[in-house]
Amino acid sequence: MNIATISTTPFTDQKPGTSGLRKAVTVFQKPHYLENFVQSIFDSLEGSQGKTLVLGGDGRYYNRQAIQTILKMAAANGFGRILVGRGGIMSTPAASCVIRKYQAFGGIILSASHNPGGPEGDFGIKYNTSNGGPAPEKVTEAIYACSKEIEQYKILEAEDIDLDKLGEFKLGSMAVEVLDSVQPYTQLMESLFDFDRIQELLTSRQFRMCMDTMHAVTGPYAHSILEHRLGAPAGTVVNGTPLEDFGGGHPDPNLVYAHDLVDILFGEDAPAFGAASDGDGDRNMILGRHFFVTPSDSLAVLTANAHLVPGYSQGLAGVARSMPTSGAVDRVAAQAGIDCYETPTGWKFFGNLLDAGKATLCGEESFGTGSNHVREKDGLWAVLFWLNILAVRGESVEQIVRSHWQTYGRNFYSRHDYEEVDAQKAGELMERLRQMTPEMKGKQLGNYEVDYSDDFSYTDPVDGSVSNKQGIRIVFTDGSRIVFRLSGTGTKGATLRVYLESYEPDASKHDQDTQKALAPLIEIAEQVAQIKDSTGREQPTVIT
Ligand code: G1P
Ligand code: ZN
Fold first, then answer.
1. Is residue 433 within a helix (H) or strand (E), and if so which, with residue range?
2. How many domains does the chain contain in total?
3. Are residues 176 and 191 both part of a single domain?
4. Cα(534)–Cα(544) distance, rounded to whole angstroms?
5. CB neighbours of 119 closer than 8 A, spacing ≥ 6?
6. Which of 88, 310, 408, 457 fits as disulfide partner to 331, beta carbons 3.0 to 4.6 Å?
7. Which ligand is nearest to the CA of 486?
8. Model-level pTM?
9. Ligand 1: does its nearest atom lie under 6 Å from the Cβ of 360?
10. What's phi and psi for 375, nearest 5 deg?
11. Which residues are paired to 475 by β-bridges?
12. What tens digit of pLDDT does each residue of 45-84 get?
């Protein structure tokens, strides 16, 4: 078989964002666009000759074509072996699990996470390193640098592989193994959770749950684990068949986009437990009967109850959360006497802490929770963790969260997103805020006094690398906060994210509506940032 060397010229827009390179499908379909980026990944790697690569995606439109191209390019670039998911399917956490289990050199995951799919939707590609985690910034910078200088790429001239047939194939001199990643993933879950207790719960008459996998990648994993292995009745998992366009939906598990599930859990005769996961399976939303658990609270509850779960009963080394995530988990960590790390947004920043054994559980406000079992956030893992806690405690989701607030106080928390706003105006808004930060200290805003304000900068405690400009914080003397950030995953215009948080120790005030409790902070955010004027929007697009 022939290796073709194709001449190409660089694209200027291949800088990976919060989570890999994410663009409209139509951009990826431009001649050489995908190939350039894949070759840039390969060019940036050292010592990959003869090594094993893991490959899979969330099944969205263009997944299969991209996989065939990447297989042939990997063969032409000297990889020894590729482990590819059956049908091209591998959830992000499962890919992380497979990379670790097979000690692969790295992996390529094709996903635009929760962004809509289909010919008019988005596509994405991210590289994970041998620890199973997203490439750290120095690696993504190197890929970007290669993409700016690329002159040619290599591809094997060969027939497509049958991705639906399990087994070993040859592509040139490279071995290709098509595997079903549900199996290794299930084994890993079984090693962490008390499957017997969860099974008892799921098969008892008093308990009913509903998991909405939103026609995305988690469907096969959830069917297999919850229904087949743990005995939940058929129909427990809904929208369980991955579709190329996610059934036309927006596979983002939050109150806005997972409204079908929300209707069920807030409706009459609601089940006791509800959960949803996103396009590539790393996000989760947790609901109780008529009750929403914020992702920040979820992380805190998992931390406080980890001793009830076999895989974590030996104790936690520490916890980590992204900066905009609420401080609920900090209070649990403080009481438990373990370290709590505050990192920039994006899972890649947790990698070093997990590898160094400094953190066991991690989470982000954006519906992401995970642990040291893999190096990605993991939606189904979070669901099983909750089920394990529910099975042991025998209380409802609401009871568990309310008693948590009683012990630790409640962090009222909300994120307001202004999507697809003018990128230049959004940039100017952030710059204005940045200029203001040095003079904010001591200022009185409404009933709040500014304790400090800055543009968050992070020094990785393991390798000393520094990440600047990670979000403007205005922190008040009572611990309440407003954070402003621009999204690094959007594909159209800019998305402004405003994160609001206030702390309430008094249990008699825990019943308030979140948006009401945060109203004074919402007003201050508008006053300081002039959001309406800058974005031309009266309201956020999404409130979570
Ligand atoms: C968003 C979330 C962030 C998450 C990322 C990938 O990034 O805010 O927490 O890690 O998606 O799922 P953003 O668009 O804010 O850059
Ligand atoms: Zn995702």
1. helix 423-436
2. 3
3. no
4. 22
5. 25, 26, 61, 245
6. 408
7. 1
8. 0.94
9. no
10. -120, 30
11. 452, 481
12. 999 999 999 999 999 999 999 999 999 999 999 999 999 9
What is residue 416's three-state secondary structure? Answer: strand
- On whether both 357 and 459 belong to a single domain, the answer is no
Residue 113: active-site member: yes
Closest residue by Cα to atom 1, ligand 1, is: 489
Q: Quote the CA–CA distance of 88 and 318 in Å, as a whole number.
A: 35
**Ligand nearest the Cα atom of residue 379:** 2
Q: Confirm or reject: Cβ of 350 under 6 Å from ligand 1.
A: no
Same domain, 522 and 505: yes
147 and 24, same structural domain? yes
Atom 15 of ligand 1, residue of closest alpha carbon:
487
Please report the sign of the dihedral spanned by the C-alpha atoms of residue 79, residue 81, residue 85, residue 91.
negative
Choosing from 40, 48, 111, 113, which is the catalytic residue?
113
Give distance in angstroms: CA of 406 to centre of ligand 1. 30
Domain that holds residue 89: 2-180
Question: Measured from the CA of 365, which atom of ligand 1 is nearest?
Answer: 9
Least Cα distance to 172 among 46, 88, 73 occurs for 73
Which of the listed residues 278, 489, 496, 544 should we mutate to test ligand 1's pocket, taking the one with most ligand atoms within 8 A of CB?
489
Task: Tell me, yes or no, whether 174 and 247 share the same domain.
Answer: no
Alpha-carbon gap, residue 44 to 367, rounded angstroms: 31
The domain that holds 537 is classified in CATH as 3.30.310.50
Residue 366 in contact with ligand 1 by CB distance below 6 A: yes
Are 278 and 216 in the same domain? yes
User: Which ligand 1 atom is nearest residue 347's CA?
Assistant: 10
- CA-to-CA separations, 498 to 225, 253, 262, 270, in angstroms, rounded: 37, 19, 23, 32
What pLDDT does 116 receive? 93
Answer yes or no: do 400 and 512 share one domain: no
Tell me which H or E stretch contains 397: helix 397-408
Q: Which region holds residue 167: left if phi is over 0, alpha if psi is between -120 and 50, else beta?
A: left
pLDDT in tens, 372-405: 999 999 999 999 999 999 999 999 999 999 999 9
